[in-house]
Structure formats: structure tokens, C-alpha cells
């Protein structure tokens, strides 16, 4: 990257002899360039050439290359190359004739330029530029320096502002409450928007939030919610029953799966709502404590780039990220920290350590490894011909022995095989045995003669490794598989050319509601890929949630649903992620919970120095 003082030197005979666009141009006419604002076209070009060629002083280049890397037209690419040549950042020698290869020379050492640039950006606190720089794909050690790490984490901003600068390591998916399907995005939304009720995971019960009281006069067929008075939205207006009416009607139109059974929603007083259901449902208030039911203002069109709510933080867009600014008027009390800035940084690959610990914090002992409340699984696409063979489905389950994969791949993380969607249940159930001999016999019974099974997997190193391992094991038994990597924001659908998919789900604080919503939400894989008869049986069982009197009854229903899902081998649970309490190496002085979430509302600076 650029920004270090240029030490470009070329042989004397090369000076002043280059002809470009019909005029003579000195190769390096400009004085040394100091580390100031990043020149992003230059940095993008140098990152792409380094990724392709490694460390070199001279690279070949076509205009098609430059167009692709810059995402621009042929004419714009020529102009950028001319500008960079004239400014002395590089020597550009056009190829002779249309389509011929050109040459680009860099005399300055890339690592040195990056060191100077990152030091400068860190010195002025240019977190957005540093995050953008890290996304260009330069070697990790050249960008994530100690100076850069010091820019992130807890610190004091301008005018004494207490600030957390943190990162996300993948593109954000939906930030609409109706379609949010990721734990990280849901967590962000709850910083900005509030629900009527909240679930207390310790007491395992509901608590008041925007609604200070609620009741059912008829055993669960109708519900009355009394709202707090004086609750302000970020744009200044006060919350009333019409906002709740607007939100619930929006849900009925946009996410009917979530509010199924609602016959009528009406205002009976400025701060009182009445909801009528088609039949009693004691689980209904729990659904109003979920991310799908976050309350929106009726007079502000919803915008994922700047959601407006009553939450503890206001949302502001930033270049390469966003800022959460403490909302002084939040009804439950102002956050202790003033602002949180979040920047997009790419997932670390290849040279990333297996565990990412807080910089400067000693390694945790073994006992700190804790299971995340999530599950990883392998699911068949029931709409594909291969999935119709029960013997083939069972054979793949026999082949996918997660303990064998862990041992053969030398994985450093702790392993918790999954026998349930929830790790606390898996801990009490012994893992099933696997047998390649049984797999071979099942394959013989299946007599599958179709094309290679296409196995969909997120394009992440660990996930790819697991899928490649399964494909290699299947090939040894005569079953061809083709691994199909997919981007992080993609999900396979019923009509896709995919037979199997690796995926994972993370539960929220309300485990029973998370289980229910994962199986009901149409955006997730269960609704997309499971057979219709399995989904009918699952829906019938989940309908029992309506009249479940307590957590024990909900637990029993969940166990029955799991048995139906796993019994036909359409779904194979593999493992629960076991992780340390660790964060991205750009972040210091911050410790997330086992979900990987940071409680922004309770963060405070303490004795941390800027």
C-alpha cells in the first residue's frame, strides 16, 4: 500500500524517456509522497498485483485486469494509470498495440509503504480507512500491526467521548426485523429497536419492556398490552399504540409465519393494544419478545441503512461501517458508553490462528472453552432425486463421523458432538456410533448411479475442510461428491443444483422460541429443504407450544420434534461449536459472551487509556 515516503529510483537511462499519450513524461516527476490520505486506486491495484504475483518490482498488466480490479471502464482505467504514473507512484509502460500486455513497476518496498501508511492512519485515528485497508487482501501481518490494534477497542474519542471501535468479519445480511436470520444482525437491531417484552434467560420468564403490563382475560385467546408513556423515538416523537399497531400489521403482511393466528389488532386507548387470536395461545407473548417483533415508528419509512427506533443507541452510517450513538432519552436509562463504531474487516484466513484472543491478554486455561449455543448440521435437499433414497441418506450419516474428522484433521478446538439442537442436551446424550462397514452396506443397497452429489458449504476454511474430508471419505467408498463453496451471505434453495448442505444455527436467549422460529422461518434451510411430510409433522408438534404450561412441557415437545427431524436422516446434527472467550485481533479490552455478543449498553471505559 501507498503512503510511505517514496524511495522510487530507476536507472538513469530510463529517466525522461517514457512516452505516454503522445507526450514525454518523466517516470517519477513528483517529489516524495508523504503518508497522508490513502490513494485507494493505487492500493487496490498494488494489492491485486501482490496477491497474483507476490513480492516483485515489476508486474505485467492488461487493461482488462485493471478494469476488473477497479470496477471501471477501459477509459477510466487508462486515466487512473496515467495519473498514478504522472504522480510518481508507479511506472506504467503501455503494451504496444491493442490488447498487448503492459508493465507496471514499483520501486518502493510494499511492506515499508504499508508500515508507514498504517502508522499514520492509526496516529490520526482513521479507523474507517484502516478497516478498508484490511479488506484489500494484503498480508495480515503487514496491516494488523500493533499500532492498528490500538485504534480499535475501548478508548477515548474527541471531546472525551468514551468509544468502542469494533469490527464485523463478514458482510451484513438482512437488518429488517421481518427477515433477520443471523444472530449478529439480530443483536445489532436490538441495540437500536426495542420489543414490547424481553425474555430473562436466568429466570426463564418474560419481563416488561415497552409494555409495562400485559394480560389475557380469556385464557390466551386475546391479549391486552399496556404501553409505557413518554418513550421517545430517535426522531423525537413519543411512542403510542398506533406504532405498535403499525408494527404488528407490518408483521402480519411481511412475516405471516410469525404472527399466524392473529385475527385482529386494535387500539383501545392511546397506550393500550388489544390482540385477538383465532384460538388460545399461551406462547404468543414470547413471540413478541423476539427480534421479528421489534417496534418501529409508523411515520418513518424503514431503512436498513439507518433503522430508527426507541433503542439505547441511534444508528449512523459510516464509510465502511456504522456508528451507534448513545440515546440520552432511552426510557430504560442511557448506555454507559457514548458510542460504538463498527467497521467491516474481512474474515482472517490462511495465516489466522485457530483462536483469536484479545491482544495483550494471557491465554485462558482449558476450562474457559465453552460450547456456543449453536449447532452445525448436514441437511439433504429433499427436492433432489438423490434425497429420495433412505439408504443413501443413512449411508452419508454413517460416513460423517465428526470425531474421526476432528482426529484426522488435527483440529485444535474442543469437540462436542451434537445429538440435540442444544449443547446442554447433547452433553447428557451419548453420541451415536458410526461405521464405514455399515455405510458400505447401505451404499450397496442404495445402488446410487446418479451424478456426483453436490455438497453446498460456506466458503470458510473450517467448513470447506469438513466438506472436503467428507467428499474424500465418500470417494473411497465409491460415492462421488462435489463440494460447492458459496459466499457467506448465500443460502441454498429447493430448486438449486445442490443435494446436501452444511450449515449452522445459533439460538438466542430464549432457546425454545429460537427452536420454534428456526423451524418456522421461511428464509432458513429447514423450510427450504426438508420434505413436505416432515414439515407437516413438525408443524403439528410445534402447534403444541400454544398450550404448553411450562418449560418442561416445551422441552418435551422439542425432544419430539428433534426425533422426527433426525429419524429419517434428512437432517444430521454434527457438532456444537466450542470456543474460547475471544475476539478479533483488532479488538482489545473487550470480552464477549459465549454467543460472541458484546453488551454495548453496559460497556464502560473504566481504567482503559486512549
Structure description:
It is a single chain. By secondary structure, the chain is of the alpha+beta class. It has 19 helices and 24 strands. The model is unreliable at 1-35 and 348-367 (pLDDT under 50). 38% of the residues are buried. Helix 2 (63-70) packs across helix 3 (74-86) and helix 18 runs antiparallel to helix 19 (551-567). Strand 12 and strand 13 (272-277) form a beta hairpin. One of its GO terms (molecular function) is peptide transmembrane transporter activity. InterPro entries: SBP_5, SBP_5_dom.
Describe the secondary structure blueprint for this structure:
Layout: E1 18-20, E2 23-25, H1 40-53, E3 58-61, H2 63-70, H3 74-86, E4 91-93, E5 102-105, H4 110-123, H5 127-134, H6 140-143, H7 146-151, E6 153-156, E7 162-168, H8 183-192, E8 197-200, E9 205-208, E10 211-215, E11 222-227, H9 241-254, E12 262-269, E13 272-277, H10 284-287, E14 313-318, E15 321-326, E16 339-344, E17 370-371, E18 374-380, H11 390-399, H12 402-409, E19 416-417, H13 423-426, H14 436-446, E20 453-458, H15 461-476, E21 481-486, E22 500-506, H16 511-520, H17 525-529, H18 532-542, H19 551-567, E23 571-576, E24 578-579
Parallel strand pairs: 7-16, 20-21, 20-22
Antiparallel strand pairs: 1-2, 3-5, 4-5, 6-7, 8-9, 10-11, 11-13, 12-13, 14-15, 15-16, 17-24, 18-22, 18-23, 19-23
Helix pairs in contact: 2-3, 11-14, 18-19
Amino acid at each position: 500500500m501507498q503512503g510511505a515516503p517514496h524511495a522510487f529510483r530507476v536507472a538513469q537511462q530510463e529517466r525522461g524517456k517514457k512516452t505516454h499519450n503522445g507526450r514525454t513524461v518523466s517516470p517519477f516527476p513528483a517529489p516524495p509522497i508523504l503518508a497522508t490520505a490513502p490513494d485507494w486506486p493505487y492500493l487496490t491495484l498494488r494489492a491485486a498485483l501482490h496477491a497474483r504475483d507476490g513480492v516483485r518490482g515489476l508486474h505485467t498488466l492488461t487493461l482488462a485486469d485493471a478494469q476488473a480490479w477497479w470496477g471501471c471502464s477501459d477509459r477510466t482505467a487508462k486515466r487512473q494509470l496515467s495519473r498514478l504514473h504522472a504522480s510518481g507512484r508507479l511506472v506504467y509502460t503501455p503494451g504496444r498495440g491493442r490488447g498487448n500486455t503492459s508493465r507496471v513497476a514499483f520501486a518502493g518496498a510494499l511492506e515499508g509503504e504499508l508500515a508507514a501508511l498504517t502508522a499514520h492512519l492509526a496516529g490520526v485515528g482513521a479507523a474507517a480507512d484502516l478497516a478498508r485497508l484490511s479488506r484489500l487482501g494484503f498480508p495480515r501481518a503487514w496491516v494488523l500491526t500493533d499500532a492498528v490494534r490500538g485504534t480499535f477497542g475501548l478508548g477515548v474519542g474527541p471531546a472525551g467521548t468514551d468509544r468502542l471501535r469494533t469490527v464485523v468479519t463478514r458482510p451484513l445480511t438482512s437488518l429488517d426485523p421481518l427477515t433477520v436470520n443471523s444472530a449478529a444482525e439480530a443483536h445489532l437491531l436490538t441495540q437500536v429497536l426495542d420489543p414490547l417484552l424481553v425474555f430473562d434467560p436466568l429466570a426463564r420468564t418474560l419481563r416488561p419492556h415497552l409494555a409495562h403490563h400485559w394480560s389475557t382475560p380469556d385464557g390466551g385467546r386475546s391479549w391486552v398490552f399496556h404501553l409505557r408513556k413518554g418513550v421517545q423515538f430517535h426522531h423525537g416523537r413519543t411512542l403510542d399504540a398506533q406504532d405498535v399497531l403499525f408494527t404488528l400489521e407490518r408483521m402480519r403482511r411481511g412475516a405471516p409465519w410469525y404472527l399466524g393466528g392473529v385475527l385482529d389488532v386494535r387500539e383501545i386507548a392511546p397506550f393500550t393494544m388489544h390482540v385477538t387470536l383465532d384460538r388460545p395461545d399461551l406462547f404468543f407473548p414470547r413471540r413478541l419478545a423476539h427480534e421479528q417483533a421489534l417496534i418501529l415508528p409508523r411515520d418513518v419509512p424503514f431503512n436498513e441503512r439507518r433503522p430508527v427506533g426507541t433503542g439505547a443507541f441511534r444508528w449512523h452510517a459510516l464509510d465502511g461501517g456504522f456508528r451507534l450513538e448513545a440515546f440520552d432519552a432511552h426510557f430504560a436509562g442511557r448506555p454507559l458508553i457514548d458510542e460504538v463504531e463498527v467497521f467491516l474487516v474481512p474474515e482472517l484466513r490462511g495465516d489466522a490462528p485457530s483462536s483469536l484472543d484479545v491482544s495483550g491478554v494471557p491465554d485462558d486455561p482449558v476450562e474457559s472453552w465453552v460450547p456456543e449455543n449453536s449447532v452445525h448440521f448436514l441437511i439433504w435437499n429433499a427436492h433432489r432425486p438423490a434425497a429420495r433414497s433412505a439408504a443413501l441418506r443413512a449411508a452419508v450419516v454413517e460416513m460423517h463421523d465428526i470425531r474421526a474428522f476432528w482426529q484426522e484433521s488435527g483440529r485444535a478446538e474442543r469437540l462436542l458432538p451434537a445429538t440435540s439442537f442444544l449443547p446442554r442436551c447433547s452433553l447428557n446424550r451419548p453420541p451415536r456410533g458410526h461405521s464405514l462397514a455399515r455405510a458400505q452396506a447401505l451404499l450397496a443397497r442404495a445402488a446410487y448411479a446418479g451424478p456426483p452429489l453436490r455438497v453446498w458449504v460456506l466458503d470458510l476454511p473450517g467448513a470447506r475442510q469438513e466438506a472436503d474430508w467428507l467428499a474424500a471419505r465418500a470417494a473411497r467408498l465409491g460415492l462421488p461428491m462435489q463440494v460447492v463453496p458459496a459466499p457467506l451471505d448465500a443460502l441454498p434453495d429447493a430448486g438449486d443444483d445442490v443435494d446436501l448442505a452444511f450449515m449452522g444455527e445459533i439460538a438466542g436467549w430464549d432457546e425454545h422460541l429460537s427452536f420454534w422460529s428456526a423451524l418456522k422461518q421461511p428464509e432458513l434451510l429447514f423450510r427450504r429443504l426438508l420434505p413436505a411430510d416432515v414439515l407437516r409433522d413438525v408443524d403439528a408438534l410445534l402447534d403444541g407450544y400454544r398450550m404448553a404450561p411450562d418449560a418442561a412441557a416445551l422441552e418435551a415437545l422439542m425432544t419430539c420434534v428433534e426425533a422426527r427431524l433426525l429419524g429419517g436422516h434428512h437432517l444430521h446434527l454434527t457438532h456444537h461449536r466450542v470456543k474460547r472467550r475471544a475476539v478479533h485481533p483488532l479488538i482489545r479490552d473487550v470480552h464477549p459472551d459465549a454467543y460472541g455478543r458484546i453488551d454495548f449498553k453496559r460497556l464502560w471505559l473504566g481504567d482503559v487509556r486512549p
